[in-house]
Amino acid sequence: MTKTDVIKDLQVLYQNKPNRLNHVFGVRDTALELGRRHDADLDKLEWAALLHDITKYYPKKQNMQLIRSYFADAEDIIANYNEHILHAYSAVVVASREYGIADQDVLDAICHHTIGKPAMSIYEKIIFISDYIEPNRTYESCVKVRAIAFVDLDLAVYTAIDDSIRFYETTGGQVPKTAYLARDYYKPHGEDTA
């Protein structure tokens, strides 16, 4: 399986969702740009970017089935993450089983692209931030984080997580514990998140 095959699959998968296809390509292009700045393996980043949303529109039940078939802690994942985050986990399963991805850097970057986690690898951070700031995203926090990302990647990670937590807290959304742990981990010295 090649990246060209993945792109063809994405074009079919998102034939009625051009904005999602544009998003995936935006994440890829942003990840490659950040990867060059951080001397990261661009091949790994491109694979992760192309596959990060491969199960985005799967029904919740299908996402849960995939997660249960692959992750030992599947019930914890399903209980602690809302249905809009589950695709990150099911995408790992599809990347591994259908596209033959065995590289843990790629799989971890796909898995943690939605809310991040403490102590992310360079690949996890780049895909997380690229998903947040890709050029098709125009909301206020995205624009703010985009300005930071090419200067200080860790500060960009912190800002994205902090803004997301604050947004979901004010709108009554479920915030996984991992998001709080990630925010604390990336919090700049002297910052107060209270």
Please provide a written account of the structure.
The chain is mainly alpha-helical. The chain has a domain at 3-136: Orthogonal Bundle (Hypothetical protein af1432). Helix content is 67%, strand content 0%. It has eleven helices and no strands. It has helices at residues 3-13, 18-37, 42-51, 60-70, 74-80, 86-97, 104-111, 122-133, 140-149, 153-171, 177-186. Helix 2 (18-37) packs antiparallel against helix 3, helix 3 (42-51) crosses helix 8 and helix 4 packs antiparallel against helix 5. The chain starts with a helix and ends in an 8-residue tail after the last helix. The model has no long low-confidence stretch (mean pLDDT 94).
Summarize, please.
This protein has 194 residues and is mainly α. 67% of the residues lie in helices and 0% in strands.
List its traits.
Hypothetical protein af1432, mainly alpha
Total of helices: 11
How much helicity do the residues have? 55-70%
The CATH topology name of the domain at 3-136 reads: Hypothetical protein af1432
Mind describing the biggest β-sheet?
Answer: none
- Strand element count: 0
Overall shape: globular
Quaternary state of this entry equals: single chain
Give me the strand/helix succession: HHHHHHHHHHH
Which regions are unreliable across 5 or more consecutive residues at pLDDT < 50? Answer: none
Indicate the structural class. mainly alpha
CATH superfamily of the domain at 3-136: Hypothetical protein af1432
Strand percentage? under 5%
**Please, what is the average pLDDT?**
94
CATH class of the domain at 3-136: Mainly Alpha
Distance N terminus to C terminus? 47 Å
